[in-house]
Amino acid sequence: DSLGPQDLDPRPLELKEVFKLFQVQFNRSYSNPAGSEHSRRLDIFAHNLAKAQQLQEEDLGTAEFGMTSLSDLTEEEFGKIFGHQKAVGEVPRMGRKVGSEQQGET
Amino acid sequence: LPRTCDWRNKAGIISRIKNQENCKCCWAMAAADNIEALWGIRGRIRACSPTLSPFASELLDCNRCGDGCQGGFVWDAFITVLNNSGLASEKDYPFKASVKTHRCLANKYRKVAWIQDFIMLEDNEHKIAQYLATHGPITVTINMKLLQHYKKGVIKAKPTTCDPQLVNHSVLLVGFGAETVSSQSHLRPHRSTPYWILKNSWGAHWGEEGYFRLHRGSNSCGITKYPFTARVDQPVRKLPVSCPP
User: What ipTM is given for this predicted complex?
Assistant: First the structure.
């Protein structure tokens, strides 16, 4: 039978299997497997596994890094969902917004 | 300083792991858990009782800086508690991971917990450990960057991989210890890795059943930048409490 777009996908089969496992384990569903969202999340997932591998090598302690419930988020998405927009110590929240010459920039 | 300290090992001090879901209320959860633990240590409430678990919702609704789900700071939470003369029970103020700013109902309900003050500790890990062991859990704010891929073990990061100046996530410091790690060098076959035990608010399926550990002694991810804790009870000289090993 005809090859679907996902079968032409150059990414290794085992990555797709691991991604399927991730989706089951953390109850994730995206648009249909051939959809762009699924493909994009698979890319992000692959990037994050590589990042986790790099952290594992760099860590000086006993930490283990790898697939977590957050492995389908980009670093920006992760920061937006869980972190302060302005890291504390940069712009204290109590400060007043100060207008500036350029329109729209505060 | 005791070799180990883990407030989870004493009943009624550390409540269950919560999940902040899509609301950036780590700051309110850390402050609420801090107050709850201090009340639990003084035997004033049982932290795990269903009526008291997360005070966070009231802190969100009454947050002095507007929508608490957009982020905030633990010191704002403590000021909110002082302004409202305490916190209502979970029964009266059910937790929702959403905020109705200006819907602050604090004045409607009887208070079940309050604080006298809140303090910032010195940026010194030995003194933070001493205070933790003799007074109780402390809120800290760290750079959360490595937590996205964290599964277990002790994170010991270099400033280049986890900038200690860019702290953006508040959690509760509940203990410390040291784990012995065998190493290749025949000179020192075993080395000990001192660590902090921290309570996160991303659900119990994340990390070590909702907790994680950071190396102790290297200001890992900026842990010493904002150590804040409430003070419960008058500052009379009292025998300090002792943390279970």
Answer: 0.84
